[in-house]
Specification:
seven-stranded parallel β-sheet, about 40% helix, Rossmann fold
């Protein structure tokens, strides 16, 4: 589908953070097949940091969806029209030969179409976007495996998929800022990252369980815990931290290892750099959780109504899943909003999984040769079903 002598390729995967991470191997696969091509990626401002520092890309083009939304809500129609016109004018001026819509929605299809690329390839295009493509690749792959639909797309496009690991390199400034934070908070001996937050309520685990788990991890492992999330998670983070303190009858720090609350206080790049340094991560189905695989960090994933993958992507990954027949329902709840599949996962199970992956981590790191920044291409972790 892609001419062998292609000059310029545009990848369109606008959001969300986890999905951009899953799609990130496309950049390397394209670069290996077309080493002389100019390869660009367009992503929305909320997700662009995931792919911004990829060594396989010549540029990352940021669609300022947040700014456009503020203009729309503020009734600044003229400024919005000018911003949209300028963005697509600049995109079209780049004269891409091929646009790959790896998202398959109407808005991503419009970006591919308005790029002016004469060859436009969509992945499972829906919402009418297939009419904007010159070719559509229906979604395929093994739904239990991470990044499988993108690996399938790469295969159809004639790309080499043998090395198809997520890659999320960090910028120097972000890495330096996180190293300073680790030193300042006394986390040099290791720490566990907790990622409790998502934009979908049906992916959540109960806040009181997060409080209990954080307290138990600090007491059992003697490691600090770093809480990550976005600005919109601030109120929930306060409740979780307060609950962690109440569980022990004292302050959240007390005589325990540090509890560092960074929710809403980092950029996405800084947060992912924190993940790259952690001893282990425990989280729900959210972008930061999935990044642990790209950095080779041990991770415990709590999946229920949404299961982006069920085969652990590497030996350092453990997936906790209820095994209920109604899961995944992807938000089409049949439990009257109780989210039974997440409630099935107890604090005890989560704690055992975290302590287990910490105990096994030294052997795993030795086996990996200390390499970080990309997920293991092989499976071998644990899927625990209630």
């Amino acid at each position: 589908m892609i001419p062998h002598d292609v000059g310029k390729i545009l990848v369109v995967r606008l959001s969300a953070r986890g999905d951009v991470a899953f799609a990130s191997p496309l950049a390397g696969a394209l670069r290996r097949r077309y080493p002389r091509a100019h390869i660009a990626w367009v992503a929305e401002d909320g997700a662009a940091d995931v792919i911004r520092h990829s060594t396989h890309l010549d540029e990352v083009i940021v669609l300022e969806r947040g700014a456009w939304g503020r203009m729309l809500r503020g009734g600044r129609w003229g400024r919005l029209a000018g911003a949209v016109t300028d963005f697509f004018g600049a995109l079209r001026a780049r004269r891409f030969d091929v646009a790959i819509d790896a998202q398959g929605l109407l808005r991503s299809g419009l970006v591919a179409f308005l790029s002016g690329a004469p060859v436009r390839i969509g992945l499972g295009s829906r919402e009418g976007s297939r009419h904007l493509m010159t070719a559509v690749v229906e979604r395929g792959g093994d739904h239990r495996a991470i990044s499988s639909e993108y690996r399938y797309l790469a295969g159809v496009l004639g790309l080499d998929t043998r090395d198809f690991a997520m890659e999320i390199p960090r910028g120097r400034a972000e890495a330096a800022a996180v190293e300073r934070m680790i030193a300042a908070e006394g986390l040099q001996g290791g720490f566990v990252v907790a990622c409790p937050f998502t934009t979908r309520f049906y992916k959540h685990w109960r806040e009181e369980r997060w409080s209990a788990l954080i307290r138990a991890v600090r007491e059992r492992t003697r490691l600090g815990v770093v809480l990550l999330g976005g600005p919109g998670d601030r109120a929930a983070a306060d409740r979780i931290v307060a609950g962690a303190a109440a569980a022990g009858g004292g302050s959240p720090s007390g005589d325990h290892p540090p509890l560092v609350d960074l929710v809403g206080r980092t950029t996405l790049g800084e947060a992912s750099a924190v993940v790259s340094h952690c001893s282990a991560l425990v989280g729900v189905d959210t972008g930061l959780s999935h990044m642990a695989h790209a950095f080779g960090r041990p991770a415990v994933l709590l999946f229920g109504s949404n299961t982006p993958y069920l085969d652990p992507p590497g030996p350092a990954a453990t997936i906790l899943h209820s095994g209920r027949s109604c899961s995944p329902c992807r938000g089409k709840l049949t439990c009257d909003g109780r989210i039974d599949c997440m409630t099935d996962i107890s604090v005890e199970r989560a704690l055992a999984a975290v302590t287990g992956c910490l105990a096994a981590a030294p052997a795993r790191e030795d086996g990996d040769g200390g390499v970080r920044g990309r997920a293991s291409p092989e499976g071998g972790g644990a899927l625990e079903v209630a």
